[in-house]
Amino acid sequence: MTNTPDLPAFAWPQMEPGWVWLCGAGPGDPGLLTLHAANALRQADVVIYDALVQEAILDWAPQAEHVYAGKRGGKPSAKQRDISLQLVDLARAGKKVLRLKGGDPFVFGRGGEEAQTLIQHDVPVRIIPGISAGIGGLAYAGIPVTHRDVNQSVTFVTGHDQSGNTPGSLDWDSISKGSQVLVIYMGMKHIAQIATKLLDAGRGSDEPVAVVTSATTSDQRVLETTLGAMVDDIAKSGLQPPAIICVGKSVLMRQVLDWQGMALGQRPRNLDPLGRGRPAETA
Ligand SMILES: C[S@@+](CC[C@H](N)C(=O)[O-])C[C@H]1O[C@@H](n2cnc3c(N)ncnc32)[C@H](O)[C@@H]1O
């Protein structure tokens, strides 16, 4: 392991006092931070971070105050409105504020709400996108979120709504029919209802499913199962959130693309998991 490299020469934006930068920290592996995130971490006076932000990332901002704003380890959950108003207060106090959120701040991360509140209070903001768990986390499991032979569209779905219930407002019938590949965030709590809805809507019980927990971290685990078996398999596996659940044939590509397994010396299980019988690039 080497130390953090210096940022390359570039016209890096300067954080100004009174600004809030809303920044994605990626799914876990600190190496998946963007360079803009690294630049922000070096300049911030205060970093307000969520539960899924790896603490190692905070080491990149030793000069800053670190404020936890997530739910973990039985600590009471910070209310969204309170977090937004805390950002306003810090900015008004002339701090350079870095709001660090897991994955991408605008993907099921309520970053849009925080930015809106800040702007409504005349606080200037900068948005720094991050790698979302539903894309980068699956890539670390060897699952391409799109693959030409499998899908021409992908649907990102949240497994529960603001009240914590299965999103009744979602049209599961259309979701099932609309995309060959579904990527479900926050799906573990309501996995049984989600499985039933997808099966009722016509998805096959033998359809491949992958459950990737703590993706891109040293605790990453991957369960390969099927839509019909996933509820039982998840229960037996003891897997715990955070999890990304991928439904669709792109999961089969893990049989050839499990690059982390190969780095540990495993052989690919199947060089042609989709049974094309021809080179991958052939149209
Ligand atoms: C509130 S959402 C935030 C999503 C985040 N903004 C993103 O773009 O990845 C939290 C959910 O994201 C997913 N998630 C985030 N990080 C993850 C990780 N490292 N491994 C698996 N799932 C993750 C889980 O479904 C988790 O319940």
TrEMBL record:
<dbReference type="InterPro" id="IPR000878">
    <property type="entry name" value="4pyrrol_Mease"/>
</dbReference>
<keyword id="KW-0489">Methyltransferase</keyword>
<comment type="pathway">
    <text>Porphyrin-containing compound metabolism; siroheme biosynthesis; precorrin-2 from uroporphyrinogen III: step 1/1.</text>
</comment>
<comment type="similarity">
    <text>Belongs to the precorrin methyltransferase family.</text>
</comment>
<keyword id="KW-0169">Cobalamin biosynthesis</keyword>
<dbReference type="InterPro" id="IPR014776">
    <property type="entry name" value="4pyrrole_Mease_sub2"/>
</dbReference>
<comment type="pathway">
    <text>Cofactor biosynthesis; adenosylcobalamin biosynthesis; precorrin-2 from uroporphyrinogen III: step 1/1.</text>
</comment>
<dbReference type="InterPro" id="IPR003043">
    <property type="entry name" value="Uropor_MeTrfase_CS"/>
</dbReference>
<dbReference type="InterPro" id="IPR006366">
    <property type="entry name" value="CobA/CysG_C"/>
</dbReference>
<protein>
    <recommendedName>
        <fullName>uroporphyrinogen-III C-methyltransferase</fullName>
        <ecNumber>2.1.1.107</ecNumber>
    </recommendedName>
</protein>
<dbReference type="GO" id="GO:0019354">
    <property type="term" value="P:siroheme biosynthetic process"/>
</dbReference>
<dbReference type="GO" id="GO:0009236">
    <property type="term" value="P:cobalamin biosynthetic process"/>
</dbReference>
<keyword id="KW-0808">Transferase</keyword>
<dbReference type="InterPro" id="IPR035996">
    <property type="entry name" value="4pyrrol_Methylase_sf"/>
</dbReference>
<feature type="domain" description="Tetrapyrrole methylase">
    <location>
        <begin position="20"/>
        <end position="229"/>
    </location>
</feature>
<dbReference type="InterPro" id="IPR014777">
    <property type="entry name" value="4pyrrole_Mease_sub1"/>
</dbReference>
<keyword id="KW-0627">Porphyrin biosynthesis</keyword>
<dbReference type="GO" id="GO:0004851">
    <property type="term" value="F:uroporphyrin-III C-methyltransferase activity"/>
</dbReference>
<keyword id="KW-0949">S-adenosyl-L-methionine</keyword>
<dbReference type="Pfam" id="PF00590">
    <property type="entry name" value="TP_methylase"/>
</dbReference>
<dbReference type="GO" id="GO:0032259">
    <property type="term" value="P:methylation"/>
</dbReference>
<dbReference type="InterPro" id="IPR050161">
    <property type="entry name" value="Siro_Cobalamin_biosynth"/>
</dbReference>
